[in-house]
Amino acid sequence: MKIAILAGDGIGPEIMAQATKVLGALAKDGLKIEMEQAAFGGAGFDACGDPLPQATLKLAKQADAVMCGAVGGPKYDALPRAQRPEQGILRIRKDLALFANLRPAVMYPELVGASSLKPEVVSGLDIMIIRELTGDIYFGEPRGRRDNARGEREGYDMMLYSEPEIRRIAEIGFKTAMKRGNKLCSVDKENVLETSRFWREIVIDVAKAYPQVALSHMYVDNAAMQLVRNPKQFDVIVTGNMFGDILSDEASMLTGSIGMLPSASLDANSKGLYEPIHGSAPDIAGKGIANPLATILSSAMMLRYTFNLDEWAYRIEAAVKNVLAQGLRTADIHESGTRKLSTSEMGDAVVAAL
Ligand code: IPM
Ligand code: MG
């Protein structure tokens, strides 16, 4: 199994070093993996003038799976859009056709106190957000700047979904729901947007093949509110690219820290790119205080979803739970009575717990 390692920017290299440490430890135990690094994001721009250098894309295409750290930073904010680090991640998603983004939000019992919500609202929380990742206003054309009839400058983007795009992500939503609690909530803005009316129509049609699954629909503004009011009403949420971007950040915070949540972005054959859902956190980069657990847990998702190695995935997840149960914490989830570890100490602790 060949894995492309794209550490990226900010805290990316620090957290990725911990995930490769964990995978390296499993390799010594017989997991047959090979890892190769490539420049990506701002680091790709620095090395080759392109956030997704040709050689990096080639490696990602050849590899069986891709692991990403994070991209972006203030150093690159003034670049034209095509050269910004974020374009690296958007292009690799599109070029590898990674249309299904799985973002689980799971509450670990040890971290209930780290959530900004009351313990009774979040304890036992286990939601799967499925975000469509290669369509919507993120990729719709036309987009750009123009002068309108009054001679004023305007900016515009196109929200657009084709029927096959909606069908295939809805299928993933129903199939995922059947492996869990048989409940699927489709989030849209059907009261305002034509794209959403179409989305809802297609989701209802796909639902005919999944009578076991209880399908509900919710407007995105209400969903944002329900996620903090009573998040445990949700099992699986399926939604478009833009709404999913926003709701998954919100859901992550329910669990105590955005530093805990992994993600998988899959193509139609379960080849995938795995990354933490958090960003490059330039403010804490290089300080050795970032939480590597989201990246480590992303490597577990890789073993499960791309390689079907449930037992190896479970070993990583169990090691993470073990470390939390020992009271070991990075700064973002540290509370009194627990022991504060650096990024690499946390990686070591997970390896020791394997
Ligand atoms: C995410 C990020 C990206 C997105 C950015 C970095 C382009 O916020 O993965 O959620 O908007 O998809
Ligand atoms: Mg986001």
Helix content: 40-55%
Major β-sheet strand ordering: 2-1-3-12-11-4-5-10-8-9
**What is the fourth-level CATH superfamily of the domain at 1-106 and 258-354?**
Isopropylmalate Dehydrogenase
- Proportion of residues in β-strands: 15-25%
Largest sheet: 10 strands, mixed
Question: What is the H/E order?
Answer: EHEHHEHEHEEEHEHEHEHEEHHEEH
Specify the oligomeric state.
single chain
How many helix segments?
12
Ends distance: 20 Å
**Global outline:** globular
Q: Mind sketching the topology for me?
A:
Elements: E1 2-8, H1 12-28, E2 34-37, H2 42-48, H3 54-62, E3 65-70, H4 85-95, E4 100-106, H5 119-122, E5 126-132, E6 144-147, E7 153-156, H6 163-179, E8 183-188, H7 194-207, E9 214-219, H8 220-229, E10 236-239, H9 241-254, E11 262-266, E12 272-276, H10 293-305, H11 310-325, E13 328-329, E14 339-340, H12 343-353
The structure holds 3-isopropylmalic acid and magnesium ion.
Can you put this structure into words, describing what you see?
With 354 residues, the protein is an alpha/beta fold. The protein has a domain of 203 residues: Isopropylmalate Dehydrogenase (3-Layer(aba) Sandwich). It is built from 12 helices and 14 strands. The strands form 3 sheets. The chain has a 10-stranded mixed β-sheet, sandwiched between helices. Strands 6-7 form a two-stranded antiparallel sheet. A two-stranded parallel ribbon has the order 13-14. Strand 6 and strand 7 form a beta hairpin. It starts with a strand and ends with a helix. The relative contact order is 0.16. The model has no long low-confidence stretch (mean pLDDT 96). The structure holds 3-isopropylmalic acid (IPM) and magnesium ion. The site of 3-isopropylmalic acid has 4 residues, from helix 4.
